């Protein structure tokens, strides 16, 4: 029997569908039921959406989660219920808009470590429930601010005074919609996110992603799946010396740490083949299994 595809798939998500819609589409194309994603994109956003298939779903927390690189557009002079232009308009600014110098000066104060309140309609959990679900039920709940980091924020004037291009490099958990909202509040005119495209997450780049529409999508997806042992997982790799050590690790038992390995911390454990056996923790000269990958599932 053939094996179902598994590993990492970088998708170039189009505008419109949700991240979950993309997962469902890839599930139908690949027939792999076990699929997850890392780093949700709003329906209005496009760009890099990493998917994990099969046993790779157990490794998603070890993928790089930052820095995240975005390119988008911010519209001054309007505030909305969702902090982007897809939401209902809350207010419109009357009068002249801030000068380019004022916009750039306000943006400087949003760079660095900041406490950011997530959008009222977002996937952040409050009281165990997603904010967007609470909003749909009519409950207005403001989530507590989260500490995030904006490494870079560049604003360039667009074709009209209200339109600005934004390039942002941020930590995981940062909302570009909230940056637009807070920029508008600081300027006193309001602002909302008009467009957004994710270009990269750490070493994963949209240039290496595939589309999921068109008749050629199935062949492109099959060719683009990164196998487990080649996934860009953050922990360093250690290779066990022989089949005995591999069998012991795969049985959930600690094994001696190979020479030259990190003395402590999480590591990804490979067989000599190499094949990824799972994730372990280096402690006092031993590798203790933390995630043991079971054999691949057949079709």
List its traits:
single chain; Archaeosine Trna-guanine Transglycosylase, Chain: A, domain 4; nine-stranded mixed β-sheet; 34% strand; alpha+beta; Pseudouridine synthase; 6 helices; 299 residues
In brief, what are we looking at here?
The chain has 299 residues and is an alpha+beta fold. It contains 6 helices and 18 strands. The protein folds into 3 domains: 7-64 and 203-230, Pseudouridine synthase (2-Layer Sandwich), CATH 3.30.2350; 68-201, Pseudouridine synthase, CATH 3.30.2350; 237-292, Archaeosine Trna-guanine Transglycosylase, Chain: A, domain 4, CATH 2.30.130.
Overall number of strands: 18
Looking at the structure, what is the overall shape? elongated
Per the CATH scheme, the topology name of the largest domain is Pseudouridine synthase
Q: What's the alpha carbon Rg, rounded to whole Å?
A: 22 Å
Query: How many distinct helices?
Result: 6
Beta-strand fraction estimate = 25-35%
Q: By helix and strand content, what is the structural category? A: alpha+beta
Order of helical and strand elements: EHEEEEEHEEEHEEHEEHEHEEEE
Return residue spans where pLDDT drops below 50 for at least 5 consecutive residues: none
Main beta sheet strand tally, sense and closure: 9 strands, mixed
CATH superfamily of the largest domain: Pseudouridine synthase
CATH architecture of the largest domain: 2-Layer Sandwich
């Amino acid at each position: 029997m053939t094996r179902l595809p598994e590993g990492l798939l970088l998708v170039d998500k189009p505008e419109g569908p949700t991240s979950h819609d993309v997962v469902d589409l890839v599930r139908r194309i690949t027939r792999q039921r076990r699929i997850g994603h890392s780093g949700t994109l709003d329906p209005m956003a496009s760009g890099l959406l990493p998917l994990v298939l099969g046993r790779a779903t157990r490794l998603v927390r070890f993928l790089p989660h930052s820095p995240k690189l975005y390119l988008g557009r911010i519209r001054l002079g309007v505030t909305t219920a969702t902090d982007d232009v897809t939401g209902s308009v809350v207010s419109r600014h009357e009068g002249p808009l801030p000068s380019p110098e004022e916009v750039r000066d306000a943006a400087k104060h949003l760079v660095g470590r900041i406490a950011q309140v997530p959008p009222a309609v977002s996937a952040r959990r409050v009281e165990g429930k997603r904010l967007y679900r609470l909003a749909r039920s009519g409950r207005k709940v403001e989530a507590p601010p989260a500490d995030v980091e904006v490494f870079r924020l560049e604003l360039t004037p667009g074709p009209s005074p209200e339109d600005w291009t934004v390039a942002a490099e941020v930590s995981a958990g940062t909302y570009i919609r909230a940056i637009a909202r807070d920029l508008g509040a600081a300027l006193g005119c309001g602002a909302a996110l008009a467009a957004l495209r994710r270009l990269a997450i750490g070493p994963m780049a949209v240039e290496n992603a595939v589309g999921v529409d068109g008749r050629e999508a199935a062949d492109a997806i099959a060719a683009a799946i990164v196998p487990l042992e080649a996934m860009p997982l953050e922990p360093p790799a250690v290779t066990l010396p022989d089949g005995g050590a591999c069998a012991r690790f795969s049985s959930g038992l600690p094994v001696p740490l190979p020479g030259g390995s990190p003395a402590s911390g999480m590591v990804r454990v490979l067989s000599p083949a190499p094949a990824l056996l799972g994730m372990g923790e280096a402690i006092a000269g031993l590798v203790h299994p933390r995630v043991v990958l079971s054999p691949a599932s057949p079709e």
